[in-house]
Fold this protein.
Amino acid sequence: MCNQITDIVAIDGPVGAGKSSVGRQVAERLGFAYLDTGAMYRAATWWAIENGTDLDNPEALTAITQNMPLHLSDSNGELRVRVGAQDITEVIRTPEITRQIYKLDHAAGVREHLVRLQREFGARQPTVADGRDMGSVVFPKARWKIYLDASLEERARRRAAQFAEKGLQVDLAELTREIEERDRKDMTRAVSPLQKAPDARVLDTTQLTFDQSVDAIVDFVREVL
Ligand code: DC
């Protein structure tokens, strides 16, 4: 399946580059489905903690992830994430989960399982998928590959603004350090590190508005369509 050119818009990039918000809007404009693969790693982390799994045991993490009854659905343009009957959309975004994800996303067996689900999703319909390894590993034959980037300062500023919208005050310097640390973990891990696929188009959004970023990707897709 992954040897065929697929109608996938693969969006990769570092923390806070706007992949999810931009990706969702691009999907809506194109009439494609949207897949937030970060939410899958977040859900697996929540599920492992919920089950008391030893987060330092990759085999146990793989086994528990394979048993996760994960459901992603779209509700009025918002992604809802459920595991079994429980809606975990909000809880997977908390700092407690974010701090532990690397233990799951560094486990080869966990990645293998989630990658299989991602490919199955992409094979069912034209899809905009965002993550860290979309163009390099999951959809190497994606018709469109984007590497979405922005300066560290701008990414921290955007994250702080998102927290402020939720009424949460954060220390910008500390947030910047946390993002830098997550970048380091994403880029240096042994399995599927964040990297720009050689055939990806780089879009630096530091100076772009949200709408300009969406337009740039939609234009790129339509150029090739
Ligand atoms: O995009 P996000 O911040 O919600 O992703 C959460 C974490 O999951 C991130 O720290 C890296 C990891 N991730 C990954 O390893 N591979 C993906 N395809 C998507 C996310």
The radius of gyration is 17 Å. DSSP finds nine helices and eight strands in the chain. The pocket of 2'-deoxycytidine-5'-monophosphate is lined by residues 15, 37-38, 41-42, 101, 105, 131-133, 182, 186 (CB under 6 Å). Residues 108-124 form the longest helix (17 residues).
